[in-house]
Amino acid sequence: MSVTEAASDRVAVPVPEPVGVLEGIGLSRLGHDVRSPLGSIISLTALMSRKIANGTTDPAQQLHQLRLLNRSATGLLGFFERFVMLVRLESGEFDFPNVTVDCALIAHQVVADLSPAASGPGRHLKLEVHDGPALAAGPAGTAELIIMELADNAMKHGVADAVVRVDAPAGSGQTVISVADHGPGLSAEDLPRIFRPFERGAAASGHDDNGAGLGLPLVLRAALRHGGTLQVATGPSGSVFTVSVPAA
User: Fold this and answer.
1) Which of 3.30.565.10, 3.10.50.40, 3.50.50.60, 3.30.420.140 would CATH assign to domain 3-21+97-246?
2) Is there a contact between 14 and 46 (Cβ–Cβ < 8 Å)?
3) What is the pLDDT of residues 15-53, one digit of tens each?
């Protein structure tokens, strides 16, 4: 099913204005999201130290523990990088140069990078692009961020194929990035929450996908920094997130 077909049974809903990064429960959630991986790292290093001290180390087990440490540290670093990006986008202190990029090429790379993780029974990440380039100009890295975060969000919360579409409608002066998932859709209560940093919708909160609640707040702020817009259509068969930015 294409993005256009997927959108036909879904209703456009208003996207709220961005709120401050640490408004509401943001500060307490930030503390939780930092303490949890740090606690795992501290506990595991303490265990490894005790085993080394009493001479009970097992090379295979130690290798497994080192991999767990690496995964926790990598996840924490990724969280901080996304959090810093969110703060920079919100504050306007975004000193990256403006660049012109081809969003179609970026989408190809994002789908290639995410597809192995997306694959599963009845689940694939599909790409639809129009013929020719889909150029957009904006702060370096933000187009990549928009496509990656939307695709990752669809992959996490969908139950079937997710579709990434990039288009540059003739005469519109816009480059349009749409991502459709086949999740449970958004409730009226979910809509404001999913754009607030560190909060997630009810469906996402119901399972452990290690999401920090930063993806859609990042997309919203990046779209605005591009001089663009973010629109959402949702219904029982899922949601479609559409970012339109000025074409280069």
Assistant:
1) 3.30.565.10
2) no
3) 877 777 666 555 667 777 788 888 889 999 999 999 999
